[in-house]
Write a structure and sequence with these properties.
Shape: globular
Helix content: 25-40%
Structural class: alpha+beta
Number of domains: 1
Length: 139
């Protein structure tokens, strides 16, 4: 992990720990009604997570998180981020923030679910992680 990435991650954990906790609570709420530890319904997972994050006010706060991470790296955004694509997307793993900056593409993932690959032909299933893993990368 390069120095700017470490700085961005440190800033996110220091200044936005409540966002990580909110994503964790939202993911718990999504997984709570499942009758097993996994789901295979990708579309429902993404839709439920997006809806829960939106209702909790998390989605609208994520562009500021992205801006703060970019600032911590000593970079500037080319445009004002919004709570939608391409800056903020909800995936089967959790919310993902993206920005193109001078050194490359910054990607921040809040991994609340993991993708479990099954036997060929059976597709994937999605399992709630124990907590949220914050992944910060420059691609």
């Amino acid at each position: 992990m390069s120095y700017p990435i470490r700085e961005a991650r440190r800033r996110l954990l220091t200044n936005h720990g409540s966002i990580v906790a909110d994503v964790d609570r939202c993911a718990d709420a999504v997984a709570e009604p499942w009758d097993t530890a996994r789901t295979t319904n990708r579309d429902a997972l993404v839709a439920d997570l997006r809806s829960t994050l939106e209702t909790a006010g998390v989605l609208e706060r994520l562009p500021a998180v992205l801006e703060d991470a970019v600032d911590a790296m000593g970079c500037e955004l080319q445009a004002e981020p919004v709570a939608g694509p391409p800056y903020v997307v909800v995936t089967t793993r959790g919310p993902m923030l993206r920005a193109t900056i001078d050194p490359g593409r910054l990607v921040i993932r809040f991994d609340a679910f993991e993708v479990v690959r099954t036997d060929a032909g059976r597709g994937a299933s999605y399992r709630r992680r124990d907590g949220v893993e914050l992944v910060v990368a420059l691609e």
